[in-house]
Amino acid sequence: PVHHNPRGTVMSISRQKALMDLAVKYDFLVISDEPYGLLYYDNPRDNDTGPSSEGIRSLMQVAGEKEEWMRHCVVCGSFSKILAPGLRLGWFHTHPDNIAKIMPSGVLLSGGGPPPVLVEAVTTLMKDGHLREHLDELRRIYASRLGAMVTSLKEEMSDFATFHEPSGGYFLWLKFKKLPAGKDTTQFLEFCRDKGVGFLPGIRTSVDSSSGGDCIRLSFAFYTESEIQSGIRKLAEAWRQFCGA
């Protein structure tokens, strides 16, 4: 529900509460995948566990308002998105009774799960405050890169595309106003292979490939501001060529 991949949207507080009411009513467990929850770039939070404004919160912050909600919710976080890719290390946030049920899992008890050395290293980073400092720096860097992408898109592509400006995460979701007859963004990606740009076609994010043919997902996390600006110019020119303009 927070900084959705690929759309970059955030589920409203009212919908999160409605979801938890349904979970209690029908007795099902909500597992919320929130790898980008700590990567927010506006609406600053009071601290790392809560926002200062409605709309950007972890589902657990909502679920934590009522014990019955908390018992029906498990939030999953990942250090691979905020420290280094490939760490394969994360955390659960849920009611203590749920933790007690998770801990006897064979994956955890066998030693084949969390790597002990990495666990100790990350724990030390957290205790010493270095993780918080690192997150502050990541937010500053990613916010600047997102800003560069948004500005470039407005300058270069506003005539033929619209987009949702995310408040966190890695990605921006762009929708073309009109496609060339009989074509979609998967074909556009193939057209761009030799243009020096890449993206994820929207169809590849659809459960049944029935939607997203006019959309693409752009990532701003890896590239510098100048690379992003250059990439958007190339993308815009490639689209004009693709459309035969």
TrEMBL record:
Protein name: Aminotransferase class I/classII large domain-containing protein
Gene Ontology MF terms in the entry: 2-aminoadipate transaminase activity; pyridoxal phosphate binding
Stretches assigned to the Aminotransferase class I/classII large domain: 4-234
Provenance organism: Perkinsus olseni
Source superkingdom: Eukaryota
Alphabetical list of PANTHER family matching this protein: AMINOTRANSFERASE, LD15494P
InterPro entries found in the cross-reference section: Aminotransferase_I/II_large, PyrdxlP-dep_Trfase, PyrdxlP-dep_Trfase_major, PyrdxlP-dep_Trfase_small
